[in-house]
Write a structure and sequence with these properties.
This is Ribosomal RNA small subunit methyltransferase E. The protein is an alpha/beta fold. 32% of the residues lie in helices and 26% in strands. The chain has helices at 23-32, 92-103, 123-143, 158-161, 183-189, 208-217, 231-246; strands spanning 3-5, 11-12, 17-20, 40-44, 49-58, 63-72, 80-86, 107-112, 151-152, 156-157, 170-174, 195-200, 220-222. The strands form 2 sheets. Strands 7, 8, 9, 10, 11, 12 and 13 form a 7-stranded parallel sheet that branches. Strands 1-4-5-6-3-2 form a 6-stranded mixed sheet.
Length: 252
């Protein structure tokens, strides 16, 4: 069944109605899926409540639906993970966002580091790129039936990103020169961690000064194993391990 996200305010519980007014969703329902009155779709409010609703009416800009069934979602992991991703070249960020959304990421923060090659000219270009990245997260969340849509934040420089750790139980930075402490060892020491931040460098990794700055901020360097992983692989490798150990990946 096709799935769509709507704002909470578009769900009128006392009237058992839902309104879809996002132009892209309206166009997709009418012109691509060619759904009609009486057809059913899945609706999620982005806050982990889910609905089955039937189309009651539609016009060029609005689709109205009647709620048939609702329930609390069960597809969100019990841990919240934020990926601080050094911005890579080309379309690698697209893949990172898509796959991390599928795996259960909560938030992605693009980070500008000393080895970042991509140049974001001004705030307008940043906002435009983030808008496109957010659409990728939206589509991936629909496809894998997430209960929330991960937030893609505006880019920030590394020195600012490492200040954003006070709300985490644990913050990690995979580093190729760290050989003794792995994720398993850290997780054995941090029982009960539910809010975790992961810092991944761009092509070429982090500079030594950045690693030292991260350590001083309280971020823990870890190894992901004996092989050097690409930037587009490292983030969702770490995320997969964390989701397996602490989340719901692999089942109960």
């Amino acid at each position: 069944m096709n799935r769509f996200f709507v704002d909470k305010q578009n769900i009128v519980e006392d009237m058992q109605q839902i309104v879809i007014d996002d132009p892209d969703d309206v166009k997709h329902i009418q012109r691509v899926l060619r759904l009609e009155q009486g057809d059913a779709v899945e609706i999620c409010d982005g806050q982990n409540m889910e609905y089955i609703a039937e189309i009651s009416s539609m016009d060029k800009s609005v689709i109205r639906l009647n709620i048939v069934e609702k329930w609390a979602g069960s597809t969100e992991p019990p841990i919240e993970i934020t990926l601080f991703q050094g911005i890579p070249k080309a379309t690698k960020m697209d893949v990172i966002i898509q796959k991390c959304t599928e795996l259960g990421i909560s938030r992605i923060v693009p980070v500008i580091t000393e080895r970042t090659i991509v140049q974001l000219k001004d705030q307008k270009s940043e906002e435009k790129k983030v808008e496109r990245w957010q659409k990728i997260a939206d589509e991936a969340a629909k496809q894998c039936k997430r209960g929330i849509i991960p937030r893609i934040e505006l880019p920030m420089v590394f020195s600012e990103a490492i200040k954003d750790i006070q709300d985490f139980d644990l913050t990690l930075i995979p580093y190729e020169r760290e050989v003794s402490l792995g994720l398993k060892g850290v997780l054995r020491q941090q029982v009960g961690a539910t809010k975790i931040g992961i810092y991944i460098g761009p092509e070429g990794g982090f500079g030594e000064k950045e690693i030292e700055g991260a350590k001083k901020a309280g971020i823990v360097p870890v190894t992901l194993g004996p092989r050097i992983l690409r930037t587009e692989t490292a983030g969702f490798t770490a995320l997969s391990i964390l989701m397996y150990e602490l989340g719901d990946l692999g089942g109960i």
